[in-house]
């Protein structure tokens, strides 16, 4: 009970800290970086749901991120649509494309799935780059509006947008928590561990994989739409494979297949990148070896390493407690026999 309360208190403390963060700092640049981190976290959660809990690594995640961003940008800038209506439609477009792609992509497995999605991501990038009449090509979309106000609440300032993105992040974390701790979550883990075994016990693997894939693309589209309305300008580069690898790096550092891994990994890498801005062109020379060592020694990332250490510590305590219990139970009997 005490441990559960402690864990709950830590979560509450983290949420409160994020809520009061803008009040602790009047530096808009720091708030900007935190808002950007929250947006990336939403996308990483989508990748984590698919790769971490179902075992299918999608390398087209940046493509769906770009679809969400460009859908919102085109609907608001070119079609002149209301922001929130365009926002919902952009999520619907991303999910429908994800459904269509998933029906084909999920017929492949393991590295074939990764290669297929890698090619798909590059095709999405080329479509955005070359379809100039729709996407403006390399010029990009300029003048994407900020979210329309809701009653007296407006989202024109850095702080107000910070809280808007924080709301969506907390909503995504809550959805992830409910999924992971549900029967569906255990089903996804069963597919990850052994898809053939899952089929033999009656699990519809294709249906469950497709559901996860669509949810993953929905989170990516949500992240992209929030990003587009935050920076107000988007170009084809947001759909490049480098963005996918950035998201994957955040996930691997934090902990693939863990609930808090996307938060930890994204915060560490984003803030570390800010301190290493002078080495941006050569950042992979720094992150590459570190990431390689992390995967070798801690394949479940930092959160997974802490979880494993905590589990081993508890197991060691249980063994010591069991040994001492046996000694106290057997010692009197031994003394009686000797007497």
From TrEMBL:
GO terms for cellular component: plasma membrane. The keyword rRNA-binding does not apply. This is Amino acid/amide ABC transporter membrane protein 2 (HAAT family). Keywords: Cell membrane, Membrane, Transmembrane, Transmembrane helix. It is a multi-pass membrane protein. Its main location: membrane. CDD domains: TM_PBP1_LivM_like. Coiled coil: none annotated. The chain crosses the membrane at residues 7-24, 30-50, 57-77, 83-105, 112-128, 161-180, 210-235, 247-272, 284-303. It comes from the Bacteria. GO terms for molecular function: branched-chain amino acid transmembrane transporter activity. It is found in: Cell membrane.
